[in-house]
Structure formats: C-alpha cells, structure tokens
Amino acid sequence: MPVILLIAALVGLRYFEVWRFAELSWWWIIGLMFVAFLWFEFVEKIFGLDKKKAHNVDEERRKARIKEAFDKANKR
After folding, report:
1. pLDDT value of position 61
2. Known NCBIfam families for this protein (predicted)?
3. Which end of the chain is less crowded, N or C, counting CB atoms within 10 A of the terminal residue's CB?
C-alpha cells in the first residue's frame, strides 16, 4: 500500500510541477507503477502474502466469536 500512496503523490507532484518533481520523467513513475503491478500480481501470490492477510482476518473473527460465546456462557 505504501507504494500506491507514493505513486499517487508522485503523479500529483509531477502533474502540478512542484519543486524538483517538475523535472522528474514520467517514465520513473510508470516504472514504479509497473513494479507495483508485478508485486501485487505475482510476488504476493508466490509468497502467499495475499492468503496470509485473509487468514489473519478470519482468525480475528474466530477469536471474537469465541470470546462472545464465553462471555454469554459466563453471564448465565
């Protein structure tokens, strides 16, 4: 996600010609976009990072469900 924010900031700074970014070539920004594309399409899948994020979300839901069940059982 930080790469996407960096790309958005660079596009804005280059488009509005702010400071030294006015001289920055668009090819650097397009190259960074290409690197982000490769990362999100291939590298995350190779290392299983996309599934790890989904697994962490499921784990948090499971823990919340268990905690809620025990809280209800203790109140009775």
Report:
1. 92
2. small_Trp_rich (TIGR04438)
3. C
Q: Per-residue pLDDT tens for 22-56?
A: 999 999 999 999 999 999 899 888 888 777 777 88
Cβ atoms 50, 44 nearer than 8 A: yes
Structurally, the chain folds into a number of domains equal to 1
What are the DSSP calls for 56-71, one per residue?
HHHHHHHHHHHHHHHH
Residues contacting 36, CB < 8 A, separation 6+ = 3, 4, 7
Q: Show the domain range for 39.
A: 2-75
